[in-house]
Amino acid sequence: MSEDINKVQSLYSGPDGNSPFRGLGGLLRENIKNLTPYSSARDEYQGEASVFLDANENAFGSPLDQQFNRYPDPLQYQLKKRITEIKGVPPRNIFIGNGSDEAIDILFRSFCNPGVDNVIIVPPTYGMYQVSANINDVEARKVLLTDDYQLNLEGIAEAIDKNTKLIFICSPNNPTGNSINRADVETLLANFNGLVIVDEAYINFSRQKTFIQELTEYANLVVLQTLSKAWGLAGLRVGMAFASEEIIEVMNKVKPPYNVNEASQQLALEALANVDQINAWIRETLLQRDRLVLELKNFDFVLDIYPSDANFILVKTTDANSIYNFLVGKGIIIRNRSKVELCEGCLRITVGTPDENITLLETLQNFK
Ligand SMILES: Cc1ncc(COP(=O)(O)O)c(C=O)c1O
Question: Are 236 and 268 contacting, i.e. CB atoms less than 8 angstroms apart?
């Protein structure tokens, strides 16, 4: 391992083994550096008043019981305050997006010059990094994970050039379910002069520590989390990025002014009061995951089940397509990942409620 790190360090351009990251100056797109962000009515006047006639809203109200006629807080201050209480990160280090997918897109738009810059992705991994790269006309250089779904540090070092702005690491990784070795991510953080994005969408299910506590150590770290998974709020679209104040300021400048709607802000705030409920569901999900793994091992079409730190498992089978189609025919939908590199024959199964898991297992008994 340490030998590996030495080899890798020699391939990066950093001076004397010190971090080569030199702040955002050289990383930011020139047009973003010079951007004057949109100034909303609520940016221009933030105090109390009895009459607000500054935002062309409907002053009469909304045709609903609940009133949504006013624009939401552009910087979601109440929500951030609550997230600060839970995560211990100050509001100035938090960006809230319309899902963490929005944060991913904003990172591309802020740092990557279309047609010029590139990013590193490490498949098999979450598909949106590639899609966001394509949308933004940015090359995504693929460095496959190793056979045990860990980082190929040497391959990453070789893929990096002077136009590499971002490296996306998903841990626990989707679709493989495992966590990425912490020391390897730290090697990247310490030796790469761009941003390392650690996507922790599934961190609440993991035995590993979050990277949030490393934010004070690494100025080039961005941690993504979401309320879509353990928090059970996928429909509200609320995702978070945690990073240096400098990075968060850029993301806030680039985002649409009212990117998180009022209903989502209010409901997310309400949900974040229910930590005990979420912890109970996480414990139940982990029990159910272990049970699913045990039971699935008994089927002869199951060749392997990969260790999972998430709320899903990746299962290698003899015939993924037939099993997938059989389950669809029975009204049970899982994810067929068999066409994904390094996931040949694999199905990804989300852990369901106890009843759903029993239905899945009983149905599979009938697969021939
Ligand atoms: C690794 C990973 N990151 C991000 C997301 C998207 O999260 P959000 O719903 O916050 O956009 C997903 C959704 O499946 C995911 O698997």
Answer: yes
Q: What is the residue-averaged pLDDT of the chain?
A: 94
Residue type, 261: N
CA–CA separation, 310 and 363 (whole Å): 24
* Residue with tokens 């899902």, as numbered in its chain: 99
Q: Is the pLDDT of residue 10 over 80?
A: no
Measuring CA to CA, which residue among 20, 195, 39 is closest to residue 106?
A: 195
Q: Name which of 206, 207, 204 is nearest 227 in CA terms.
A: 204
Centre of ligand 1 from the C-alpha of residue 17, in Å: 34
Neighbours of 207 (CB within 10 A): 8
Q: Give the CB-side neighbour count of residue 98, counting CA atoms within 13 A.
A: 14
Q: In a mutational test of the pocket of ligand 1, which residue from 122, 178, 203, 228 has the highest number of ligand atoms less than 8 Å from its CB?
A: 228
Q: For the whole model, what pTM was predicted?
A: 0.95
Three-state secondary structure call for residue 275: helix
- Of 240, 246, 176, nearest to 211 by C-alpha is 240
Q: Which atom of ligand 1 is nearest to the CA of 234?
A: 9
- State the Cα–Cα distance between residues 314 and 343, nearest whole angstrom: 9
